[in-house]
Specification:
This protein is α/β, with parallel strands linked by helices. The protein has four domains: 113 residues, Polyphosphate kinase N-terminal domain (Methane Monooxygenase Hydroxylase, Chain G, domain 1, Up-down Bundle); 175 residues, Polyphosphate kinase middle domain (polyphosphate kinase like); 177 residues, Endonuclease Chain A (Endonuclease, Chain A); 187 residues, Endonuclease Chain A (Endonuclease, Chain A), CATH 3.30.870.10. It is 36% helix and 20% strand. Strands 14, 18, 19, 20, 21, 23, 24, 25, 26 and 27 form a ten-stranded mixed β-sheet that branches. Helix 1 packs antiparallel against helix 2. The protein starts with 21 loop residues before the first helix and ends in an 18-residue tail after the last helix.
Amino acid sequence: MSKAAGVPRPRVRRDPELFINRELSWLEFNHRVLEEATDPATPLMDRLKFAIIVSSNLDEFFMVRVAGLKHAEDEGDTTPDLAGLRPRQQLEAIGARAHEMVDALGRVLMEQILPGLAEQGVRLVRLASLDEQQRGVLTRYFRAEVLPALTPLAIDISRPFPRLANLSLNLALLLAPLDGETAPRLGVVQVPAGLRRLVRPPVAEGSSYVLLEEIVRAGLPDLFPGQTVLEAATFRIARDAEMELDDEGGRPYLEAIEEELKKRRSGQVVRLEVDEGIGDGLLAVLGERLEVDAGDVYRVKHPLDLRALWPLTDLPALEHLREPVLKPLPVLDEKELTEVLSVVAARDVLLHLPYDSFDPVVALVSAAASDPDVLAIKQTLYRTGGDSNIVKALARAAETGKQVTVLVELMARFDEQSNIRWARSLEEAGAHVIYGIRGYKTHAKVCLVVRRGPQGIERYVHLGTGNYNEKTARMYTDFGLMTADRAIGEDASAFFNALTGYSDPPRMKKLAMAPTTLRERCLKLIERERRRAEEGQAAEIRAKMNSLVDEEMIRALYDASRAGVRIRLNVRGICCLRPGVKGVSDTIEVISIVDRFLEHARVFHFRNGGDEEVYLSSADWMPRNLDKRIELLFPVQAPEARRKVLDALDALFNDNVKVRRLMPDGTYKRRRLGRGDDPFRVQVRLYEEARRAWERVRAASTAVFEPLSLTPEKAAPKP
């Protein structure tokens, strides 16, 4: 990549009152997820899912965002953010909001969700509540299966505090002092991560579970024989998980990442979660040994590490307490899937996941692997998943001698180790694997198939807003475009040539690429609408994205709003733009939808005086996406495909069930149904529309035409 791509953009005058703090905006997003867990209208098992997601989101937030702010503070950085908050001020505001959120999460779990499950026969029970026979069975289980995996760790002057794994669950205990000593002694036992956390005691009816840590706690005398355990409490730590790669170190990139993954295991502790009932003395000792500030300690009402409860969400007996399954629907029939290259050669195919099936994408790569006329397959992979049919097809293509080039982004956060494993398997199959681009994270989603056809070289391209991941394709809303458009194919070739070889950033006809041209393309499109508004024309911008953080993009939207452009934004997560500010953003509306599917697509619609333009992208409007990542923006040109995107965008802004509207003060309010309004839940509506579309296609493809003939009675006599 050209070094010019990373040149810092000029700073402009600060207007803190016009911006919302990024971290507090993210916490507001997580609060919207928590609202789904607290909403009685949400089915009980889905409420539990949302509660687990809230907890997992907080883990990542602390490991990445809070860790980054702590680094800044340690380095003496007092630079304010867009909203005028310095790192210390941000940490204080985060702490207050996060403590409120953890408390609210504990209340909804312990007072609503878990009691609701108990009414259905699914209970978390305390070990002490079981009868003697049941406790005896669990004691034998502990001694046979758990005890051999435990390591008691005594901590004193000669034995320092152990380096505990990130997000591990542990027991801290105080042991009675030895003769001649006055202070209790500290011990630690790590709960084995390889054993199931939910243990079923022998009960006559229902589904009851005891948490593994309770069983370990009861077995502490076996671990510390002859010692008196004064107190024991569970605790969990979150460590700094940000990677800091030194590009000048001279080490191979893969080796550098593997080294950073090792460092992640011993990073600074940024959060300590403890049992609500932990004694002040034990907590003080624990906090001192872990070097944790009091504000980073979270007393938790609910069980630590809620991921342990995830198996409960899939219990077959509780199917009636979950949202009905919405199985992805076909876009192509079986015959079209087997001839997918011919279909794409004839017309663009637009997929709207998860309403539409991901099968055509898998079929495209699989067909390319099997077609003897395919010369090369080139693909970017970010988060793919372990057992991927796409990876298998790429390996099969490489094994048969096709030129397969895969750009694997090793820096896909928390998927690094998985990506390393299957990337190496592709190399073993004969694929050429590129482990990222130095200085940039590759986030673009593109697959290029190059084929020798009757008229020369043919190119087939898939471009998407989401990952090549068959699991998330059933849970995330994304768009994908399959096309044989000549210009897009040539752009895709230029894109891969720029990434795999030594070349300047490519000049593209229809695609825009970050960090070179994507920002400028979006700014020009916004500016064009602003000029049209100033000329008295109707002007409108609609956009859907995950996050809106970039200062320059926000200021461009403010300028367009001042000129009278109507701007409607659907931002699922972080939004630093402040709508409804008089004289600045009067014409800007921001909504967020949190529902059963994770809203993930990036869509941009510009009215352009009636000659509408629609774009899809892998990039959010964040500095990292626009300046530090390799991303793609691509147009939707075919009328039918463009109409499908616009219809979906219309529907998203019509939701009145799961939508929240961003207020000027940074809070969100749910849209309430008016008298006589019919509920409009966009994700359900879009699925129904996809189902009707498939039924129309199926009906047309299964029609049978019979020629008319004379009945035997009226048939002419044989000569």
